[in-house]
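Final report, results section. Input specification for complex C-07:
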Amino acid sequence: MLPSPRKTGPSWQSIAEQAQKHRDASLALVQPPLPTITDLALDTSSVPKTVLTAEELSITESDPVTLLSQLSTGTISSKQVAQAFLRRAALAQTLVNCITELLPATALERASYLDTYLQDNGKPIGPLHGLPISVKEHIGMKDLTLNAGFISWHARIGAANAHILDILLEAGAVLYARTTQPQTLMHLETSSNLYGETLNPFNRTLTSGGSSGGEGALVGLRGSCLGIGTDIGGSIRSPAANCGVYGLRPTSHRLPLEGLSATMLGQEHIVPVIGPLSTSLGGVKVFMKTLVDARPWVREPSLLPFAWKTESQLRVFGAGYKGIKIGVLWDDGVVRPHPPVTRALNTVVAKLKSLPGVEVVEWKPYKHDWAWTIISSLYFADGGSEESMAIEASGEPWRPLSEFIIKDNRNVKKGGLTVREVWDWTIKREEYKAEYARLWGDVDVILCPVGPGAAPPLDHARYWGYTSQWNLLDYPSLVFPVSRVDPAIDVVEVGYVPRNDKDKYNYDLYEPNKYVNAPVSLQLVGRRYEDEKVVEVLEYLEEKIGLPFEKFF
Amino acid sequence: MLPSPRKTGPSWQSIAEQAQKHRDASLALVQPPLPTITDLALDTSSVPKTVLTAEELSITESDPVTLLSQLSTGTISSKQVAQAFLRRAALAQTLVNCITELLPATALERASYLDTYLQDNGKPIGPLHGLPISVKEHIGMKDLTLNAGFISWHARIGAANAHILDILLEAGAVLYARTTQPQTLMHLETSSNLYGETLNPFNRTLTSGGSSGGEGALVGLRGSCLGIGTDIGGSIRSPAANCGVYGLRPTSHRLPLEGLSATMLGQEHIVPVIGPLSTSLGGVKVFMKTLVDARPWVREPSLLPFAWKTESQLRVFGAGYKGIKIGVLWDDGVVRPHPPVTRALNTVVAKLKSLPGVEVVEWKPYKHDWAWTIISSLYFADGGSEESMAIEASGEPWRPLSEFIIKDNRNVKKGGLTVREVWDWTIKREEYKAEYARLWGDVDVILCPVGPGAAPPLDHARYWGYTSQWNLLDYPSLVFPVSRVDPAIDVVEVGYVPRNDKDKYNYDLYEPNKYVNAPVSLQLVGRRYEDEKVVEVLEYLEEKIGLPFEKFF
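Structure output:
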């Protein structure tokens, strides 16, 4: 039984106003203050260099691995680094609306502590000494909000830090920024009635992606070099791809999830995961290794007690080149990717084919439409009643993409599934996973799109298949930037006859000029628990074929 | 909605008769035929030596590791070994009713093939070359029954071998015997309307345990040296303990489950596991290593792709002794173990305390009654409707222990839980797991009872807590034989005041003379995924303190 929408108390609008005031007040504490920016361009990426100091630009545009090296030796101070990222994050908020609050006081205090520690001890406190890390809002922080995108949850406060934050702090991180997420956390965009819409830094008419879209936009604008997102259908990878940065959805049960706020807690049919978005692959790797090395399974028993593998997962030949077999999935057979995505794939594949040791084969999609039926039947097994309750308790309106994924989703059963129906879908899920496993043979990784196009215009991200596919299969999947939409080259495919309604929707969406400047990314996917191999393959390819082909900063 | 009991077709009695005739016909094919045994003693363990040849006795009472060594070099032939175990298994059926069918034709044919292979190739076909393995009936075999203990399922036939059998066959095993299980598979005993009751080889008034009680009795009587059971609440460990053999409940998702027949398929709240019962710890180890080494995760993606660790998991000191910290759980705080169990623990602990490097500490039980509430609320999340349907479809009567665990269990909600209720119990389960994890500190293993007594009289195994506790926590748990009930020493604890109804039931149950001869076993428990450590600790203790203290053959 759903409770009636609240009739008394503050209106949802006044709660939203209060949340935004809190955010703005936290930004106002960042010193020195930023100038007011009046004339916002479509592409915001040129703004930082007009506002920030040379030192701030240099720090914030550094690879996190470089920063860590400088921080650990005292070449730069933690305070300098925190200060630079605080200012750039505040600027990012002005440009693309990606922040729920900044934490200048605690961040600078912690940075000072770390600087003193280094001076006193002559060594860094841990592997992340002094590195600022940004955090999606629904990952709990002690004494801070934990609204997960719902107006009615605005008064929820974190009782303690999430497990993952405890580990990162222990390793030396500085937490300085909290980022936006959509209503329900179940959009591949980021819009909520609390904070409005998060925009794409490279084209403000497009979405930053979601649900970790605050992270995507912030990391995309270099207001963060390493951030934490969560992913149950594409929520790390969509914003990483849309904003031209790296994002990894690790295999389940490797990284700690304790202390997150969300609907459907206790649900295990499709396990959500937590993972990094970063400006470099090195950032992704140091994040994973630090967390796994901390043995999080001791505190959180659902996690698996297996180390982060550091030995090579690939065959290495005498000539020093690696043996890698890559399956290329051009199109999932359901929704055809837009021309810029196919061009990016084409360019990468052409270069791969020239590498010794690398073998490229076609990866035929296997019933990806059925995969979506399974996963979307399991997502809201309670009929979406928790989301409905959380939305309607405050009287806030349903966002279009909440309606789309719950109310208009024919795989969500009104009133919820019975336990036996959940078990039946679970059996189908496992059968599908076994069928898909048989396709691998000796393929090492799959190379594929991250979505059916670059970042779409707001409220149009309605096809999850290119990311949710790997959530269903629980495969590690890594997004990396490749190129940019070029309307002059990436013209509409004339005469294409869509296969189905979803395909038609996506085909009709593509007008090259609307996508100008948008980053184009691709995805590398591995077998379950081959996270290390996926990262290693991308390291090798980046070195050999010079990815990304276009720089965003 | 449950279907009405069937009104037409054969009666359940005639189906049972047919199943037993099929079993008897399969036994009749074993050559040379066994003599008729008329005068069955309470303790059947002296019968084999009056019936079998010296060679058959020698083979069937050998450690499986010794057999494998002899088989791999051709010192004994696969055919000799299969023949010996077929005869002893047929005898075991006569004595304790543990078999659903024998497979003499296929087993001997396969054994001949293996003998030829060894002769032709000069090497064994795999690590289990020629080893006979017995199999619980609900583990599917191609073209054979798959009734899982229900009359109404008697016509179900395996479409293919279960995944685990494919691997064992590939490794050289000979499958020759299929064993009994109880109605619903959810008893810690073994009685069904298809085959009746399986008895304890050492005292026929007691149960063999269950649900893998056919395996327990067969391995206990040395009609098998290595068998496969399944466990969701104690179903490997109860029969292993009751019958004086080794049994391991591995951590979940290590061994293949594909191809099993049971109710509640698709249920993941409490993951069932498959594992070995064996006459030696070496048998347990070779089983685990062979299966994990076969990389079963490639075919069955729910499994974890991690090797069986062969390097020592313990601290080793210069003097060559191992550093092991053992927590001793004497009593779970809910139901006090009977005197023979406490005596076994006392004897082992006294010896442990004299070992250098071994530290013994008390392990205080933490809310084991709450653990039972959680697990028994999650077992039959559909309200037991599948079990009811499967029982009532044929008109067969409910067995007392089926009634006990489903109909009389106040944690089974009529009509089943809602999806949200399942999630709530799942959250409670994870919280409890996290709380329990905090207790470990630097303890390596927990030593504890396997049940609240030795094997009870039939229909009296009503306390699961000493085994289900570790299913809830998903801890690897290994049962090993220690001693035997001695009514002269193991007298009733006079003046004990039971703490609750369950404790009173168990206290009242103990009359020393009724338990005469019954094996007494203990359990070693490790942290999640520390299966290798648990096995290693027991190997070390067996060597150092000479377990078991009494031999059963």
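The longest strand of chain B covers residues 477-484. The interface with chain A takes residues 258, 264-269, 297-302, 304-306, 381-382, 385-386, 416-420, 422-427, 430, 433-434, 436-438, 440, 473-474, 527-530 of chain B (CB under 8 Å). This concludes the modelling results for the funded period.
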